[in-house]
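Please supply some protein, with fold tokens.
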Amino acid sequence: MERFNKKNLWIVLLIGALILTLFANEVGVDKFIARISNINKPLFLLVILFNFLNILTFTITWRYLIPPKIGIYRLFSFFMAGTFINNITPTFGTGGEPVKAMLLGKETGMNKAECFAGVVSQRMLNMFPFLVIGGLGVGLLFSRSEVRLETWQIIGLAFSITLAFSLFGLIVYFYMKKDKLSSFVHSIIRFLAPLIGLVKKGFDHMSYVEAVEKSIDSFHGGLRNIGRNKDAVLKATILSFMGWIFDILAIYAVFLSIGETDIHISILIITYTLSMMSSWLPLFLPGGLGIVDVTMAGLFIFGGVSAETAVVAAWLYRLVNYWLNTVLGGYYLWASLKTE
């Protein structure tokens, strides 16, 4: 757990304060506070409910992809602990995956590679429904006769979709071709060897080859075992679709809570998917903090939503999706470490 320290938390809080200041100044501080204060409280509770259902369905998805049957609450706590690490470390949203695997291994006695295979398989599986829903959003957008996109908007949309499917295709390729995954990892080690040698004198990448090969064998074997359970994979895929839908419904509930109902579902879906994909960019921001917020607000504006409404809606969504989940995840990580 030495992967983060209090400095990470201060950086997150500083970025959060800067975003709040930026958004408030964009709308006008008084108007921003008024819009936030006057939200429909019962409808905003729906945002929290849909956010919880999103996390719960992803937790159950993960449960279908690991051999031992562990209690949902324990798995939920591990999922949230990993979410906390993802949200406060600049690791492209993957820093929490080893933490999830470690906690799962301690709870079940599974080996690390098998635990990590279960974690990675859930992330892999979640990408497919995400891309399908994003594609549906694009189809709905172009089905609207009143939509007239600029050339740069079409290029940007095409680039984002191509990037997403390329990443997914690369993951599937490495899943099917263990030897290619092995070659890729070895190439990375060789590439990094000179850099590591500057820090660690006498570093010989060849001494790591055997250990890396064993880890890849165990990891890939774990993935293969998961792939053989077709019924579990099907159920997990259906739940993954539901999880993404719950998250999109959370954004829609945000708009309802601020009294805005005239927003097309295609704008919701495309804004959501592109905003989430923006967190993959190598900007070294924890949990996509800042880039997701600004991207979401900007895309809503491009979609015809007023700047005031777009900024308030994006901030309220992230208040739940990022900040509430980070606080909750921090609690569960603390509780997990306390019991060790």
